Amino acid sequence: MSVDQEREREPEDRWSEINDEREVDHHLGQSWGEPGLKGYAGGSAWNDPTPARSSTIKSYSRGFGSTVPLDHDDRIQESGGKGLSDAHHAMYGSHRLAQDRFMWILPYQHDPRVVSMHNFIEQSSSALAKLGFHKYLNTREKGALFVNVDYTSEEAPTEPAFDWLKFPDLQRTRDRTLQQSVAANNPAKTCLVFMFLVSKSGNSVGMWRRKIPVPQSLQTAYQDRVRRLESEVRDKVYVVKIE
After folding, report:
1. Whole-angstrom Cα distance, residue 84 to residue 146?
2. Which value, to the nearest 10 degrees, does the dihedral of the CA atoms of residues 29, 98, 16, 26 take?
3. How many C-beta atoms surround the C-beta of residue 110 within 10 A?
4. Beta-carbon neighbour count of residue 66 at 10 Å?
5. Number of domains in the chain
């Protein structure tokens, strides 16, 4: 099948590429549990070669002179970019247009792994919102959390691992939905979480978006620092780059 023929396929066929081409492995039907003690790493995942850690952590908010506290139960496992590696070709490749690399119309109920991840995010919403809030303060840039529903780390094989991507990382994808979602969002109030599943061919990804409100107590505790950062962010121009 030629590239042009692939691009003409119906959405259902695109889902089949993701759902049927994959190898059946031990992740099929993975049920994600409650968050436990997990690692933490700062910065944007594409630029962070450091593997996720599961030991005691420190969280830095550069320029603010204070840290955002992460309680024991709120530590979320991070992949240090490893969970994103399988998706690099689909997200940044020039083999297809962005509209043919990112599949946004797939129902999450169609795959048990996505359903399970959706449930984990629901159960861990407060912890994920706190993590996204910290990432925003730490990187001083709009961004979102990403999770590969088919990836687990060797250090924590029963738990999902998340990564933070900044807006400039998403501009390189040329995907309109990703960029517009992050550009329009206020990460001091809402944390965006994108779930993705890579097709076996590696040419495309199924994408699902969740919005999690940042706890009001956290917004209030850091309102002065957030106000200064928001003033800085408002001066930036968020250009949506497409093909």
Report:
1. 8
2. -20
3. 12
4. 12
5. 1
Q: Is residue 242 part of a domain?
A: no
* pLDDT, tens digit (0-9, with 9 covering 90-100), for 215-225: 999 999 999 99
Pure H helices in 29-105: 82-85, 88-92, 98-101
81: in domain = yes
Q: What is the residue range of 149's domain?
A: 3-234
Least confident of 18-27, 88-97, 173-182: 18-27
- Residue 60 in contact with residue 138, Cβ under 8 Å? yes
pTM metric for this prediction? 0.74
Is 187 within a domain? yes
Q: Is residue 243 part of a domain?
A: no
Between CA 141 and CA 40 the distance in angstroms is: 18
Q: How far apart are CA 197 and CA 42, in angstroms?
A: 24
Question: How many DSSP H helices and E strands does the chain contain?
Answer: 11, 5
DSSP 137-156: HHHTS-EEEEEETT---SS-
96 secondary structure, DSSP code:
S
